Amino acid sequence: MSVAPDSAPEPLLAKSKTARATIAAMEEILGKQIPVLDGQGFLRVVDYMGDDGAIVQAARVSYGQGTKHTSQDRGLIRYLLRHRHTTPFEMCEIKLHLKMPIFVARQWLRHRTANVNEYSARYSLVPDEIFKAGIQDLAVQSAVNNQGRGETLPAHEATQLTGEMQQAAENAYALYLRLLNENNQRPDQQGVARELARTVLPLATFTEFYWKCDLHNYLHFVSLRADPHAQKEIRVYAETMVEILDKWVPLTAEAWRDYVREALTLSGEERTVLRRLLNGEKVAKSETALSAREWRALGKALGYDPESETYPTA
Amino acid sequence: MSVAPDSAPEPLLAKSKTARATIAAMEEILGKQIPVLDGQGFLRVVDYMGDDGAIVQAARVSYGQGTKHTSQDRGLIRYLLRHRHTTPFEMCEIKLHLKMPIFVARQWLRHRTANVNEYSARYSLVPDEIFKAGIQDLAVQSAVNNQGRGETLPAHEATQLTGEMQQAAENAYALYLRLLNENNQRPDQQGVARELARTVLPLATFTEFYWKCDLHNYLHFVSLRADPHAQKEIRVYAETMVEILDKWVPLTAEAWRDYVREALTLSGEERTVLRRLLNGEKVAKSETALSAREWRALGKALGYDPESETYPTA
Amino acid sequence: MSVAPDSAPEPLLAKSKTARATIAAMEEILGKQIPVLDGQGFLRVVDYMGDDGAIVQAARVSYGQGTKHTSQDRGLIRYLLRHRHTTPFEMCEIKLHLKMPIFVARQWLRHRTANVNEYSARYSLVPDEIFKAGIQDLAVQSAVNNQGRGETLPAHEATQLTGEMQQAAENAYALYLRLLNENNQRPDQQGVARELARTVLPLATFTEFYWKCDLHNYLHFVSLRADPHAQKEIRVYAETMVEILDKWVPLTAEAWRDYVREALTLSGEERTVLRRLLNGEKVAKSETALSAREWRALGKALGYDPESETYPTA
Amino acid sequence: MSVAPDSAPEPLLAKSKTARATIAAMEEILGKQIPVLDGQGFLRVVDYMGDDGAIVQAARVSYGQGTKHTSQDRGLIRYLLRHRHTTPFEMCEIKLHLKMPIFVARQWLRHRTANVNEYSARYSLVPDEIFKAGIQDLAVQSAVNNQGRGETLPAHEATQLTGEMQQAAENAYALYLRLLNENNQRPDQQGVARELARTVLPLATFTEFYWKCDLHNYLHFVSLRADPHAQKEIRVYAETMVEILDKWVPLTAEAWRDYVREALTLSGEERTVLRRLLNGEKVAKSETALSAREWRALGKALGYDPESETYPTA
């Protein structure tokens, strides 16, 4: 995560004194654009409320206890996260300013528990900014993941195709301006209303929005979107959000890694298989009720060859 | 609202007997596509729960009263809606299947209190369906509404421009197929993953989703989206939803028209002006704290010439 | 609103420097208990995010405009609130620490759009704090409002009854301790689990919680709970929240008073009546479709004698 | 789950024909009170929308596929639940009518994603119904669970204490009536307003409400509240809801048992321990970063003696 040298579009507020919980690492990045997607998009922390201490403070109201030594905070936060006591994590809040392609924003805004103010293409002219995929982004449809990508295309094919995509983007934006009759391209004619002209723009067009969210839902968001199954173009934003998490609430970030990101959930049937394996037994797939997909996933998680019909594999 | 003759894409379930509240007018349209946007899109009621009686039933739990005569239901529903006792209206639920352009879906899905399952263009091929604006849709930017449309363009200009829009849509879809390498257009080459190829499609591309919502939020949705300030392409869906409201919960629909759709809200300052007008006084704009926009809106609402500096206007 | 002299139960954090929006009037009250219900309960601002400027900032992202002169902020905020453009108000957040009787908390927590951490009586001992109604609180059931209070009881009756209520509270708390076997009251016996013992405590028992909410929902809350129809014991908290609103977001507070608190909403039928009155006509109740209740409310709002069968009343 | 013989307080609607998904097992219990807490409380299914097929139907819109063989539905539902694809489960809805003590309702209504209409004690007289704990309910505070119960008290102590609790409940209700001046107990005096009189009633007083919820949130609710850590008095309702789940959406119920109820989640550190155990190694607690509590929980889950300092235990 590097901050763009001259990225602040709005003058930073003069520093004020506050009795609110203040985090030095967050103050450092506040208001600065963090480039994403090779600098075509960005993420910017606009405001934040609360730190690890705010989670502990809220939890201790529940438990009817006053403030304790900071040394106990880590244990409490880990306990809360592990046992899905989620409400104390809702006591922290963050506000981001984001710029991303519309096809990413469409996935983003399916998360319903955030507050959003987006740029309106009914009200304002859409700038000439359309996502340019890099040649390393052009990959084939994944053979194992119906939603994802597999190997990248050969460079010469990718170069050809990204060129065509870029030309198409330019054509679309030119038609957009022509419909609006910007620069009086169609002399003596009138422009079409923005709300209709925008419909010719591609899904790769950039948009911007403010997005405000509590920490519990922020964790849920990054758990889903920093996952390898998420589309790469949203994952890079989510990974940046994980880096911000480390600055904002480091104890929570650590607990989230241990208990969510690196966690493994086993079904009832898988637990039965595990018990047998721990007993030193050999287990054949045909003896279990696991589907082929589940059998492979279990083997992978436990460190076996997932193509084997029997676990453990030597 | 006319129902397409052969519109049911899924065989209707055989009729079953139920003790649930059942509404004849809803059963008639259940599962049938109602064409919107000249049949390019549709709306289809997939399921519903509760009727006007369910609202009354819930309200009477609050009031600790048993069932009463149906004749009193109308009065109770009107009372609840007028006084914004919204929770009984949450006791009814509806599920729609919708097909609409992505630029409309983007507005639609900003409403966060509904349940949604949308077609995934990561998982499946996007069909060749892109919204074709009619020549009557091509209107200039409104001079009074920064978000809306004014007069339509002359027919020959509109014909020319819709032709260009349609050609651009065809080009975009052709590039989409080329990227996917459908029909082996790029012989001996591989297709690009769907999640990336789709980014060249325009915002006018159609999408589909299931959308489930309670009646209170349904009313809120149509109040905002069947409003003249809403974009025409979403308004036509919202107007269809008003027609469904009449079938689903006729007493609520009537109360909503009286107390929401046709209601007028006056600010504190406007109430002061109104008192003076009712006293038979003449009121000059300069005597009030109303902004120019507010003054005009008040005059229009009360039946005066909004351009006059003094009310009443003769 | 007076702040208790020595009310801070937690040491205030040392002042830090921040680039976040900071409000002097909020910093002054931060962390300090504001007594409510004669000091039996309290409200305390624990944290806040954003000011009037944050609303403007978010709205201007939607409109695609940069920062403007502060002098235009007031007009924009008024426009947003008047036209129910609610999302920019969601960009501010506040966190309160509250102590109130359970019967008030039950109403409070029906608002679902806030984050909450409440004291757990399963986990901790409930303190000996039960709401004592003052003799001025003992009023008869209202004759006109099925939910509310009318005139206060004669002082000697009220004194007698508040004495009985207090005695009952003491008895209940004594039984609670006895069940828990606090102080070994039941020698050689064991205490009952807290989660069961608490069930004998009255609804007037105090509880505490942290409550975090965005400004849009805060406004909605005070609109409902600072209303004369709300129960007095929640209204006093809501009125304190209105005073905090003035400190937090003064421009929004002013707009809320004009466009919500002092606003009047007229139904379609009432607008018809109003048009006739403005035309100088006399209107008889029997000529309208208004219910008796609606007729009276309209008369009251317009400054007529609500008992008259004809408006205007001389 | 047995249905009370003559429990329907409202006449069942005459059977109607519907094209909506209809479930025979649900129709059988529709409208009938299911007694809970020894018949002191109840749960009643008032309405439902959707079945297992509705989940599949919504998921297949996402995947762009039409209807398939029912035999594939089970696999799809299991896949969705396992991978936390939660939105299709939101496509089913249920409405319950519940009667429970207020201390249970307080826990219940912390779930924010449901629709609720509760009996209003401001508007109506509270009936003389206060939860009577059975002698088997009187248990000591748990030594291991700060929130829960341990062993039951000796019968003679429990009998004594339940007697005192019941007497206290009678006294509280008598004071409530006296405050209201029901039956003119305080001759020539007036009753106190209901909203204030109710404050003397204990938390064990019964309340009633309608509660409507989608299936995803219903599953979340029962996962938390049918858990052994939940208070017994809410757990008995949640267990009844599990039985209803089996009738409503049997494929989902089965998948929920396998992938949620009987699932085990291992943290990153626990996975490391597991890998070593599967390798046939002995692992000492001191070699790991697990807390004492985590070590015991892991041992228990894997079938070892949780008090041992080394796993596996012979």
Walk me through the topology.
The structure is a homotetramer of 314-residue chains.
Chain A: E1 16-18, H1 24-29, E2 33-36, E3 41-49, H2 52-62, H3 73-82, E4 93-101, H4 102-108, E5 115-118, E6 139-141, E7 149-152, H5 155-180, H6 194-197, E8 206-214, H7 215-225, H8 232-248, H9 250-261, E9 264-266, H10 268-278, E10 283-284, H11 292-302, E11 310-311
Antiparallel strand pairs in A: 2-3, 3-4, 4-8, 5-8, 6-7, 10-11
Describe this structure as you would to a colleague.
Four copies of one chain form a homotetramer. The first copy, chain A, is α+β, with helices and mostly antiparallel strands. The first copy, chain A, folds into three domains: 160 residues, Gyrase A, domain 2, CATH 3.30.1360; 63 residues, no CATH class; 44 residues, no CATH class. Helices cover 40% and strands 17% of the residues of chain A. Chain A is built from eleven helices and eleven strands. The first copy, chain A, has a five-stranded antiparallel sheet with strand order 2-3-4-8-5. A two-stranded antiparallel ribbon of chain A has the order 6-7. A two-stranded antiparallel ribbon of chain A has the order 10-11. In chain A, α2 packs across α3. The longest helix of chain A is centred in the middle third of the chain and has 26 residues. Chain A is flat. Chains in contact: A-B, A-C, A-D, B-C, B-D, C-D. At the C-D interface, α4, β6, α5 and α6 of C face α4, β6, α5 and α6 of D.
